[in-house]
Amino acid sequence: MKKLLNFLPLLALLIVITSCSSVRVAADYDKNANFGEYKTFAFFKTGIDKAEISDLDKRRILRAIEAEMLTKGFTKSENPDLLVSLFTKSQQRVDVYNNSWGYGGWGWGGFGPWGAGFGPGWGWGWNQPSVSTSTQGVLYIDLIDSNKKELVWQGMGTGYLSRNMEKKEARIKEFVTEIMTKYPPVVQ
């Protein structure tokens, strides 16, 4: 039983770490769309310009989407079957951990000339609460039928974003790759 109690904090930490690194994805689509007839794509500049992220991140996302579309057999075209658009949302998450209870220390009291002698003792104490912040982002990728001007597929990925510039590009690729695993939809 004691080993189990010692293992629980490690298990909780592992769950927190893995949940922070994964991207949760979902997709929605038009059941009447014939996804087999879409062969070419282009980016929908009007929609992409509205995305409220830095131009650097937009370029990273667009490169990752283009790579995924090419991998799926699409060709980039001036007269596309599909237009690709995107938008993003983000929110700051603040976690406060205030469970740092423990024993206080003990020591010798101040025997001084004023006669205020305190002997050895002990007591309960606590540490300062720890605060961590993280940014959770949502990336939406929209595929629009260029002839009908209708949304036919939307993929969404939710996860934590990295502030580390070296890890940011890899994280963006992870978001896009995970979202695009939902395309084409499995139509029943």
UniProtKB/TrEMBL annotation:
Alphabetical keyword list: Signal
The keyword Signal is assigned to this record: yes
Domain of life: Bacteria
Gene3D superfamilies given in the database record: 3.30.160.670
Signal peptide bounds: 1-26
Record domain DUF4136: where: 25-185
Protein name from the UniProt record: DUF4136 domain-containing protein
Organism: Flavivirga rizhaonensis
